[in-house]
């Protein structure tokens, strides 16, 4: 009954690291260990309950047999008082038979009590060991999750600073610089064109003023 529990305890204890190395998912493996141990404890509890029931049954039979022994003894004494020696003899013979049976039942009951005590003790040890393994499982589970998180973070950081990422950023930077250069060139061309147009526009204004001045002089006979 306790062999499987002891095997699981050994695996979770001394051989745990090697088992976890081979397991695809250590957390799932640990959970399975705990379920196996829980099943083993339930089986042990059932066995202890049956043993206690057997102990009580033997105690009841022993009490009944011992009570009959006491009854036959009192009946033999009563027969002697009544002067019926033959009846007393038969009562004592039956008492002897029940006495032997009572002694056998007492021995069986004593063994059952001892077995019940041993089973209860082992069951308590199993439950204590289960709690210890549960704490260890919780600790290992937390460590496994932490290790997974660190690994994922390190991989992410490695990808962020990788050659491919840097090359991508460099290409984008070149693109941006190209856009900026094109924008500056376009702006210079636009500024150059505006300056040339402004000069011609100013020239047109000067021609217009000269024409108007000449017309005014002609009108006033000042030519």
Could you give the topology of this structure?
Layout: H1 3-12, H2 16-22, H3 26-81, H4 85-160, H5 163-219
Helix pairs in contact: 1-3, 3-4
* Proportion of helical residues: over 70%
The total number of structural domains is 2
* Extended strand count: 0
Apparent shape = rod-shaped
> What fraction of residues sit in β-strands?
under 5%
Task: Write the element-wise H/E pattern from the N-terminal end onward.
Answer: HHHHH
Indicate the mean pLDDT.
80
Report the major sheet: none
In angstroms, what is the radius of gyration? 54 Å
**Helix run count:** 5
Distance between the termini: 138 Å
Low-confidence stretches: none
Structural class: mainly alpha
What would your notes on this structure say?
With 223 residues, this protein is an all-alpha fold. It folds into 2 domains: 158 residues; 61 residues. It has 5 helices and no strands. Helix 3 runs antiparallel to helix 4. The mean pLDDT is 80.
């Amino acid at each position: 009954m306790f062999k499987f529990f002891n095997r699981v305890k050994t695996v979770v204890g001394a051989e745990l690291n090697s088992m976890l190395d081979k397991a695809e998912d250590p957390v799932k493996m640990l959970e399975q260990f705990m379920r196996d141990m829980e099943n083993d404890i339930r089986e042990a509890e059932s066995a202890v309950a049956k043993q206690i029931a057997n102990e009580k049954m033997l105690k009841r039979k022993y009490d009944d047999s011992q009570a009959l022994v006491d009854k036959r003894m009192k009946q033999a004494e009563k027969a002697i008082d009544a002067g019926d020696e033959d009846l007393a003899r038969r009562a004592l013979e039956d008492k002897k038979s029940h006495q032997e049976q009572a002694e056998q039942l007492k021995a069986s009951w004593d063994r059952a009590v001892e077995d019940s005590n041993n089973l209860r003790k082992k069951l308590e040890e199993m439950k204590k060991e289960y709690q210890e393994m549960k704490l260890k499982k919780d600790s290992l589970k937390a460590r496994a999750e932490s290790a997974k998180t660190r690994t994922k973070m390190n991989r992410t950081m490695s990808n962020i600073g990788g050659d491919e990422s840097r090359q991508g950023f460099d290409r984008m930077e070149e693109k941006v610089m190209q856009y900026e250069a094109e924008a500056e060139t376009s702006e210079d061309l636009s500024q150059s064109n505006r300056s040339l147009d402004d000069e011609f526009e100013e020239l047109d204004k000067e021609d217009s003023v000269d024409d108007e001045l000449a017309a005014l002089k002609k009108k006033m006979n000042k030519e």
